[in-house]
Amino acid sequence: MNVKEASISKEQQDILDGLSAEQKFINPKYFYNHRGSKLFEKITQLEEYYPTRTELGILQSKSKEIAELISPDSIIIEPGAGNCTKIEYLLTDIHPNVYVPQDVSEEFLQKSAERLSERYPWLEVYPIASDFSDPIELPEVYQHFAKHVFYPGSTIGNFEPEDAIAFLKEMHKLVGSNGGILLGVDLHKDNETLHAAYNDEQGVTAEFNLNTLRHINQILEADININQFEHHALYNSEQQRIEMYLRSKSGQGYNILGQSIEVAKGELIHTEHSYKYTLDGIEELAEKSGFELQKNWLDEEELFSVSYLSS
Ligand code: AVJ
C-alpha cells in the first residue's frame, strides 16, 4: 500500500467520494458535531419549525390513549435516542418494565440513563451505545417482554422510501409478533409552511446546513471556504420531500488529501432529504413492512402524526 493511500481513512474516503459524485453529497450524519447538535436544538425552538413542538403536544395530550396500546410487561426501545427527552412525555402514563435507549454517543446515553433512573425509580434503563446501523441485541432476560419501538422526530423521513421500508422491516423483526412501533411522521402540506420551516428568518437552518462543511473540514484536514457556499432548501411537492443543499457561489477547486475536488458556480451539494407523508403513505409504509397501522394521532392543524403500527 503506498504512503498516499495509507493516509486516507474510510470515513475520509466516503466523504471525498460524495464530493466527487455526479450529484455531490455530504451524508446528513455530518450535521451533528457538537455545534451542529446545538444548532439543531435552536431549530426546534424556532417559530417556523413546527415539527418538534407539534409532536411533543401530541405525545403529551394522547399519552393515555397511547398507553392503552402499549401493553404492560413491555419494553420500549428507542433507536437514536439522543438525550432521551421525548420518552418522558410518555412515562407519565406508560410504565414499561424496561427502556432501551440506543445511540452512538455513550456519554449522552450515560447522562440520560442516570437522569431517567433518578426521575423514574421504577423504570429499568438499559442503554445500548452502538452505531445506528448496528442491530439492536437485547439480553435473553428481556426476550419474554412485549417489545415496542419508539421512533419520534420524523427521522423516518430522512430515509429514502425504500430504505424506510427496509428499516421498518428490521424493526418488525426486532419487536416480534406481539409488539409494535410508535412513529413520529411529519405530514405532506402546503409549500409555504414547509419552505418556511427549512428557511427560517434568523438563518439558524442555514447555519446548521453550512456547519456540515466546518465538520468535514475538520475530518478531511481541509479548508473548504464556507463563505463561498449558501444554504438552499426547497419543497419538492411531487416527491413530497424537503431537499437541502449547499450552493456554491463561485467556481472553486480544492486538493484534499491528494484528491482534486472541483465545484462549479451554482453547483449544489446535497445534504438532506426530509420526506413528508400523507396518511395513505403511512398506511403503505406499514403494509410494505409487515406492520398493521392501528392509529394516527394528529394535532388540530393536522401538521404531524404520531402513528402506532402493530406487528
Ligand atoms: C431531525 C432529521 C427530522 O429533517 O426536519 C431540521 C433535521 N433539517 N431542519 C428534519 C432538520 C433541517 C430534521 N430531522
UniProtKB/TrEMBL annotation:
The keyword Transmembrane helix does not apply. One of its GO terms (biological process) is methylation. It comes from the Bacteria. The keyword Methyltransferase applies. GO terms for molecular function: methyltransferase activity. It holds the Pfam family Methyltransf_33. Keywords: Methyltransferase, Transferase. Residues 12-309 form the Histidine-specific methyltransferase SAM-dependent domain. InterPro entries: EgtD, EgtD_Methyltrsf_superfamily, MeTrfase_dom, MeTrfase_EgtD-like, SAM-dependent_MTases_sf. PANTHER family: ERGOTHIONEINE BIOSYNTHESIS PROTEIN 1. NCBIfam families: egtD_ergothio (TIGR03438). This is Methyltransferase.
